[in-house]
C-alpha cells in the first residue's frame, strides 16, 4: 500500500524522480493532497534509503568530518573499494590501515606488529596495491592513516625471513639495524619490562621481548623518519604511533620533524594511562592527539554496570573527569580497539550496549572518534578466517556500516560544534540530549522500551524529522518551543536520533 502511494505520488509529480533525495523529501512532504501518514512514512523510508546510498548533502562549511574507522586486517584492495563505496558517502574522514611494512610470517594478527623492514610488502598487499589504495581513498575524500610500528622490531623467535624475503634475527635486520641500534637495559635478567612505575624501564627495556629501538639516536630517527616521510610522499595523511608510551615524547617529535608536510598530518598516539605510572598522556600532546584509554574503560563500566546516565550528569563525560582524560582538542576516544577487544578491557561487539556506546561517543561533544571494524575470533591469536573481506560473511563484522553508527556520524557532522543542551535522564540507564538546535539523541540502555511523552523539550526547530538511527522508521514531530508533538518510543537497547 505504501509503495503504491509513493508510486502514485511520483506519477502525479513526475519531476520528483529528477531531484536529489533531500529535495524529493521536501517537495513530497509539502505537496497538497497527500495523506499525513503517507508523508511521514515516506520521509522515514527516504531517509533510510538516502543513508544507505550515500546521498547526504555535505558542504565543508556545514558538515564536521573527524571520524576515523580502523579497518583492522583489511587488504589494501578492499580498503580502496570501501573508501569509494561506503566510507566517503557515510562521512568518514580517515581510514586507519594495518601496518603496511614487511613483518614476520604467520597467520596471527600480531605478526603485523613485528616489523622486519620498511618495505611496503605485507600480508595486506604489495607496494603497488598500497599506493593504489592511498590514491583511490584520497580521490574519494578519505585520508589514509597508517598504523606506524616504530618503537621496536621483532622478538627474534624464530629467526628467519619476512614477508618480502628480508632476513632477520633479534638484533639484526639486513642493512637496516644491528645490535648497537637497540636498547639493552640490563633489567630483570632478560631486558623485558616488568615495572610500569619505572619510566626508564618502560622506555628502555623490551615490550614483550620485542627488540627496542634506540629512538634517541640520529641513525634510528633518520631511518624511521625516512620511512614515514616516504609514506607521506605517497599521500598518506596521518599516523597512529603504535606503543608511543614506550618512546619519550621528544623522540617522537624528533622523528615526525623529518616528515614532509608534518603540519598537515593527523597524528594519534597510543599512550595507555595507568593511575600509578609516571608516564602521562599529557606529555604527548605536543605531537598530536592521544588515545583516551580511560574513556573506553569507563564506557564499559557505565554501560554494563554503574549506569550510563552518569556520562551526562552531573558532570558530562570529558576532560573534567580528571585522570586519564585530556582536553577535547587533544583527545581521540573509542569504544574498543584491536587490543582491548581481546583483553576484556572494553565493550565488545557481542554486548547489547556496543552500538549504543558508539552512538554516544559520536553524538557527544568530546574528542575525535575512532571506530574499530573487526572480525569475529575464537582465540586471542586468530587472524581473519578469510583474507578478502565479505561483510557479514566469514566473520567480517563491518560494524562501521551499521545504520546506527552511520546515522550517528550524520548527527555529529551536522551538529558541528553545537553545545550539549536539554539533557534528560530517566533512571540510571536512559538519557537524551540535544546538540544545540541541530540534533537530538535518545539512548535507552534497558531491555524495555522508553517513552518520551508529548511536550518534552528537545530543542529542535518545529518540523518532522526521520530517525536516522534506523529504529523502526520513526518520525519525530516537533512543535513550538522545541517540544514534542507526539511521544517517541525508544526500543530496548536502542536509540533514536534526528538532525537538521
UniProtKB/TrEMBL annotation:
Note the SUPFAM superfamilies from the entry. Answer: (Trans)glycosidases, Glycosyl hydrolase domain
Q: Which reaction does it catalyse?
A: Endohydrolysis of (1->4)-alpha-D-glucosidic linkages in polysaccharides containing three or more (1->4)-alpha-linked D-glucose units
Gene Ontology terms describing biological process: carbohydrate metabolic process
The UniProt record lists the EC number as 3.2.1.1
Q: Which UniProt keywords apply?
A: Calcium, Carbohydrate metabolism, Glycosidase, Hydrolase, Membrane, Metal-binding, Transmembrane, Transmembrane helix
Signal peptide positions are: none
The Alpha-amylase C-terminal domain, residue ranges: 421-499
State the needed cofactors, names only.
Ca(2+)
The record's Pfam families line, in alphabetical order, gives: Alpha-amylase, Alpha-amylase_C
Lineage, top-rank taxon, reads: Eukaryota
* The protein's name in its UniProt record: Alpha-amylase
> From which organism does this entry originate?
Melampsora larici-populina (strain 98AG31 / pathotype 3-4-7)
Amino acid at each position: 500500500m505504501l509503495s503504491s502511494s509513493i508510486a502514485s505520488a511520483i506519477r502525479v509529480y513526475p519531476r520528483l524522480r529528477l531531484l536529489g533525495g533531500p529535495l524529493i523529501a521536501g517537495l513530497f512532504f509539502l505537496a497538497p493532497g497527500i495523506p499525513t501518514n503517507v508523508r511521514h512514512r515516506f520521509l522515514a523510508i527516504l531517509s533510510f534509503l538516502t543513508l544507505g546510498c550515500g546521498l547526504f548533502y555535505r558542504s565543508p562549511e556545514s558538515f564536521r568530518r573527524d571520524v576515523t574507522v580502523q579497518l583492522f586486517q583489511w587488504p589494501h584492495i578492499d580498503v580502496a573499494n570501501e573508501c569509494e563505496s561506503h566510507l566517503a558517502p557515510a562521512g568518514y574522514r580517515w581510514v586507519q590501515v594495518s601496518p603496511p611494512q614487511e613483518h614476520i610470517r604467520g597467520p596471527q594478527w600480531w605478526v603485523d606488529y613485528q616489523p622486519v623492514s620498511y618495505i611496503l610488502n605485507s600480508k595486506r598487499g604489495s607496494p603497488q596495491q598500497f599506493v593504489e589504495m592511498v590514491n583511490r581513498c584520497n580521490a574519494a575524500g578519505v585520508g589514509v592513516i597508517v598504523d606506524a610500528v616504530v618503537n621496536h622490531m621483532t622478538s627474534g623467535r624464530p629467526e628467519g625471513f619476512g614477508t618480502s624475503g628480508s632476513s632477520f634475527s633479534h638484533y639484526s635486520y639486513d642493512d637496516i639495524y644491528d645490535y648497537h641500534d637497540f636498547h639493552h637495559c640490563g633489567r630483570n635478567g632478560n631486558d623485558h619490562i616488568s615495572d610500569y612505575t619505572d619510566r626508564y624501564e618502560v622506555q628502555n627495556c623490551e615490550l614483550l621481548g620485542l627488540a627496542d629501538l634506540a629512538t634517541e639516536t640520529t641513525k634510528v630517527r633518520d631511518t624511521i623518519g625516512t620511512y614515514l616521510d616516504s609514506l607521506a610522499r605517497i599521500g598518506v595523511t596521518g599516523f597512529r604511533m603504535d606503543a608511543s608510551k614506550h618512546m619519550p615524547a621528544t623522540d617522537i617529535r624528533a622523528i615526525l620533524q623529518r616528515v614532509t608536510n608534518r603540519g598537515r598530518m593527523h597524528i594519534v598516539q597510543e599512550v595507555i594511562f595507568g593511575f600509578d605510572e609516571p608516564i602521562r598522556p599529557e606529555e604527548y600532546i605536543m605531537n598530536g592527539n592521544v588515545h583516551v584509554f580511560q574513556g573506553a574503560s569507563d564506557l564499559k563500566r557505565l554501560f554494563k554496570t554503574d549506569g550510563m546516565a552518569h556520562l551526562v550528569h552531573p558532570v558530562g563525560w570529558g576532560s573534567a573527569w580528571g585522570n586519564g582524560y585530556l582536553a577535547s582538542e587533544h583527545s581521540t576516544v573509542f569504544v574498543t580497539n584491536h587490543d582491548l577487544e581481546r583483553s576484556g578491557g572494553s565493550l565488545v561487539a557481542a554486548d547489547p550496549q556496543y552500538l549504543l556506546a558508539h552512538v554516544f561517543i559520536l553524538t557527544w561533544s568530546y574528542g575525535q572518534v575512532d571506530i574499530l571494524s573487526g572480525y569475529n575470533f575464537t582465540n586471542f591469536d586468530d587472524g581473519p578466517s578469510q583474507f578478502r573481506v565479505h561483510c557479514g560473511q566469514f566473520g567480517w563484522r563491518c560494524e562501521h556500516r551499521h545504520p546506527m553508527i552511520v546515522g550517528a556520524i550524520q548527527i555529529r557532522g551536522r551538529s558541528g560544534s553545537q553545545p550539549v543542551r536539554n539533557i534528560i535522564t530517566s533512571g540510571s540507564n536512559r538519557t537524551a540530549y540535544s546538540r544545540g538546535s541541530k540534533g537530538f539523541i535518545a539512548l535507552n540502555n534497558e531491555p524495555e522500551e522508553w517513552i518520551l511523552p508529548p511536550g518534552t523539550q528537545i530543542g529542535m526547530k518545529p518540523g518532522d524529522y526521520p530517525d536516522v538511527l534506523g529504529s523502526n522508521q520513526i518520525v519525530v514531530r516537533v512543535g513550538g518551543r522545541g517540544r514534542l508533538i507526539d511521544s517517541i518510543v525508544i526500543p530496548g537497547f536502542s536509540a533514536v536520533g534526528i538532525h537538521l
